Amino acid sequence: MKTYAKMSATYAPTLKEDPVEAELASHKLLLRAGMIRRVAAGLYSYLPLAWRSIRKIEEVIREEMEAIGAQEMLVPMAVPGEMWQESGRWDVYGPELLRMRDRHERDLVLGPTHEETFTDLVKNELRSYKQLPVTLYQIQDKFRDEIRPRFGLMRGREFIMKDAYSFDADVEGMQRSYEEQKAAYARICERCGLKALPVKADSGQIGGDTSVEYMALADAGEAALVWCECGFAADVEAAKANIRVVEGPGEACERVETPCEGSIAALAEFMGVEEAACRKSFAIIAEDETPVLCLLPGDHELCEVKAEHAFGHYDVMSEEQMQEYGLVKGYMGPIGADERVRVVADVSLAKSKRWLVGANEAGWHIKGACPGVDFEVDEWLDLAEAKEGDGCPECGRALKAARGIEVSQVFQLGTKYSEAMGATFMDEDGKEKPFQMGCYGIGVSRTLQAVVEQSHDEHGIVWPVCVAPYEVEVVPLDVKGVVWEAAEAVANELVKLGVEVVLDDRKERAGVKFADADLMGFPYQVVLGRRGVKNGTAEVKDRKTGERSDVALGEVATWLAERIEAQRK
């Protein structure tokens, strides 16, 4: 039989001050409200209140997955390293992959994600096209050995994730599975009370050609986004924006003395031009040890992700290396560089004919330099990081900037893993073909903190009903006599109507109870005092709006239950 919870018996040790370790408001509030506790860097315990919310998020996920036919299961966290060696990710995933050995000296991986595990599972079980499509998922702890875990649950080493994997017979089927998951993810965000934007993203270490992230918009979000009113949105690392190109000064190639600080801002001011009229240079050593000079519009930065796609795991040149290749820090350019240097320019500059570039001599630049005439560009690539004001690639209007928290991501993998691991099925013509795969991840614990980051005020958390630990807190200002009797009656009636209730039975001052109620952020508070009970009323506070309503004691449970039911889904 369901009953209400008592605050005196709830393990939720609150803190009066912001913990030193916390930077984001959501991290501070989850700690202060007694929801989580730090065990070590990037490792957190979920206390009872947070765990109730986690379970609600998981239930939303399960309902949406069941609606599209995905089947829940569970695989081990630790898997044989040979699977990762077979897929090719053992050497390329990086130090975030926690590798270990058992007592028999066999390599193991503590999974950050499980493409290999699920591919290995089905490759000897799904043998015919008649068995497809199949989508399997799990909700499980994951581990990534982050070098700088921070922001609480946002970037931890151990975290809770839902990961799903679809197996289809052809590309069209994979795309249908992908679109189903994508739509389900949008509904999950909405049902959890998140304002999230689907943005085009880089596939990163997962791989594949197509990926979309759901970003919960937040000023403190770690991801930079660009978006347009036409509906386009992308992570700046993946956006292919239309960059406005400004021609540099000078009609012909000419050296010009520039006795100014070696920065684009200083150069632009000295020359009396805008920064976009300058050309910015980045000197790197590519993964294959080739020296590369990257040239970009002066008002843009080199996108690290795009550069990694182009050059592999690269390193920024040291000053000694620059000297070796004829490059001068602060005054770098393609003219006068060593012939071993590969010159690569951003594709946005391909039609520009007048460049203001460094002369590879301290205090000097070259204006009016023309590619193809005064120097050669070996390759034109998309290297610049998109930013606010660039043109939308879909409609041409100016892009706007925002920040977001990645809560989920969907990928079209194609045959990346199935081919590498020999996972095939028999098609209609009797031929062996690799599965067309998709994978889909939701950061469950990250979603919890993202909700708090979006839904809080200066007093504490403001939980949406759908994921709140409890939906109503009953706050009696006296824990004996008629006030206590009325509080118990209201709590019991709410429970009968299916409402989740916590009753603050502590012998604390009213101010302490009110402060804790706001800090913990339950959606509704029912406040009962002697005067109100005597008059037959209770005060109901809506935590989100702050609105207070006097409601008859005999009607308060029904009044609240109706409002809560409307907000649950």
SSE-based structural type:
alpha+beta
Total individual domains? 3
* Overall radius of gyration: 29 Å
Poorly predicted residue ranges: none
Beta-strand portion reads 25-35%
Helix content: 25-40%
By DSSP, the count of extended strands is 32
What is the CATH superfamily label of the largest domain?
Bira Bifunctional Protein, Domain 2
CATH 2nd-level architecture of the largest domain:
2-Layer Sandwich
Oligomer: single chain
At the fold tier of CATH, the topology name of the largest domain is: BirA Bifunctional Protein, domain 2
The average pLDDT value, as a whole number, equals: 94
What would CATH call the class of the largest domain? Alpha Beta
Distance between the termini: 24 Å
Envelope shape = globular
What's the number of helices?
14
Main beta sheet: 9 strands, mixed
Q: What would you say this structure looks like, in words?
A:
By secondary structure, the chain is of the alpha+beta class. The chain has three domains: 53-219 and 410-453, Bira Bifunctional Protein, Domain 2 (BirA Bifunctional Protein, domain 2), CATH 3.30.930.10; 254-381, Alpha-Beta Complex (YbaK protein); 470-567, Rossmann fold (3-Layer(aba) Sandwich), CATH 3.40.50. Helix content is 26%, strand content 29%. It has 14 helices and 32 strands. Strands 4, 8, 9, 10, 11, 12, 13, 22 and 25 form a nine-stranded mixed beta sheet that branches. It has a six-stranded mixed beta sheet with strand order 1-29-28-30-31-32, sandwiched between helices. Helix 2 (48-67) crosses helix 10 and helix 11 packs across helix 14. The longest helix has 21 residues, at 171-191. It is globular, with a radius of gyration of 29 Å.
